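We emphasize that the prediction below concerns an isolated chain of 222 residues; any contacts that depend on oligomerization or on bound cofactors are therefore not represented. The input was used exactly as deposited, without trimming of termini.
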Amino acid sequence: MMRGHIFRLLILWGLVCGQAVMAEPDAGKFHEGSQYQRIVPPLPVTGQRDRVEVVEMFFYACPHCRELEPKMKHWLENKPQVDFRRVPAILGPNWAEQARAYYIARELGRLEELHQALFREIHEEGRQIYNQYAVVEFFVRHGVPREKVLELYYSDPVLKALNEARVKTVKSGLRGVPAVIVNGTYKTAPYFVHNQEEMLEVLDSLVEKERQKKRVAENVSQ
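Result of the prediction step, given as a token string:
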């Protein structure tokens, strides 16, 4: 009985792996250590277990991050299998203030609106948002009472989020932005490939790789 059960599991594993190979037409096109890298040890995943977590690491003052915005929005269309979120990278002291602005906007419940406004003010209006005064004035310009901004500036949710962003930046080993992390296991970025379009192709491949891994794990556990 036991031998027959093991035999059935091996057959199932072979079928699933065969499906995985067929579902990955780019398997030979992109290679670990070249177009993407493995993160060791893997980072914790906070998204839904039945989806593949994709985290975009960015910096508001980075023109390439702004350039990626519409491309990422288009990439996310018809991606129900993806649990997407952004994390502002913190690679230096100046980066922390813009990360803080991101999390203040989130606490205000106006994240998408103010996320785009931050990019617009920095890249179109030439505003420098690198200190507390500039962060506070940004929100005041967008109708948030100064007292509310100062209250959130050092609030526990914002400080906790900033710390988590610092840890993710360090542990993922980023050397620049924009970059994307897939299921806490892989990272890719334009500096691994030729351009942002190719990075999104790599991202497609990595998402499919993680989806197949989940399917194998689910089938074997049944």
